[in-house]
Amino acid sequence: MFTPERIRQIAQAIQPQLPELLPADIAADLDFQLTALLKQANAGQPVEQQILDLLYRQEALRSQLQLETAKQFNPIPSNSAPIPTTTTFRCPHCDYTDTVPQVGMIPEPCSDHPNVPLIAA
Ligand SMILES: [Zn+2]
Predict the structure, then answer these.
(1) Do 10 and 55 share a structural domain?
(2) How many distinct structural domains can be found in the chain?
(3) Tell me: the pLDDT tens digits for 40-72?
(4) Bridge partners of 99?
């Protein structure tokens, strides 16, 4: 699960890349919404889940989200084998599970409970 701090970092890392990743009108709209949400987040409001939802709604951003997350979750020295912790996640409310190819990547949210953070299976 992400800390609010992490979500803000990821959002801030992705925001400047929006025009490259999305059609111009969508990028502009998303940029506007993200700026507003980040402002609220910085003011201490609990809008982190909204930020994640906003980004996850864009198919084109999901791989980018995984990249940003993997980058910061996986500071593995280049010549040592990564130690697997968890790559399998499940929804706490149903039997949905998702497996990611690499530790530290974000699983696809449960389609029935998209706002519920998945937990390690
Ligand atoms: Zn579910």
Answers:
(1) yes
(2) 2
(3) 998 989 898 899 889 988 888 888 787 777 665
(4) 88
pTM for the full predicted model? 0.54
Q: How far is the CA of 92 from the centre of ligand 1 (A)?
A: 7
Q: What is the pLDDT of residue 72?
A: 54
Separation of CA 96 and ligand 1 centre (Å): 6
Is the C-alpha dihedral spanning 18, 38, 59, 118 positive or negative? positive
- 57, 87: one domain: no
Tell me which residue range forms the domain holding 15. 4-70
How far, in Å, from the CA of 103 to the mean position of ligand 1? 21
Centre of ligand 1 to C-alpha 88, Å, is 14
Best CA proximity match to 23, nearest among 50, 61, 66, 51: 61
